[in-house]
Predict the structure.
Amino acid sequence: MAHMHKHRLLFAKTDRACYISHLDLMRTFPRAFLRAGLHVKQTEGFNQHSFVSIALPLSLGYSSRCEILEFELLDDMPLAEVPERMNKVLPEGIEVLECYEAENPCRNIRYLQWECRLSFDRGIPEGAADALLNLYRVDSLVIQKPSKKAKKGYTELDLIPLIHSLEAETDGNELVVHAVLAAQNPGLNPDLLISTAVAQCPDFKPDFAAYERREVLDENFEIFR
């Protein structure tokens, strides 16, 4: 069966662009295609617009080096020319890294590689890294996750099966956590990982936390494209 979307953009979303919402990003790319002189497939109906979708939308304020946008390019041109044309018209902080044929369905995305930087104005509390890692060295850790759809207002979620790997290191006044987490059905937001740790160890609450998506992986932990 042919894919509805024939092409993908791999792009980075960093710096001030982190605060561009998903909905605004979905408006930004169609405009960028027009400004770049690229013709892409349009939706049908009276109010037509570019048919684009972004796999696993990023939370507001998060940065990423591996966002994936699907579309269908109608122009007969080398895909290698697309990034340069797009980058000339995209906002600061959004950079197209690659354009390629879409072959592997996005449902095959299984894991996301994250870098979480936890900043402490007065220095990293002693034992913070070990305390964080030890919290997740258990067979099960069930938490109550807020949910508007659940009658109780929350659902129960076991975090441990959603964590493939977790490492921590210090960098000045920052505790840097490297995590490979489940991507979908269900996925694990790294902020939930950190907030759960803080709830268990309030003294380790950072003054600021920054999250960056570093890579998208398949079920074999190979880079997904």
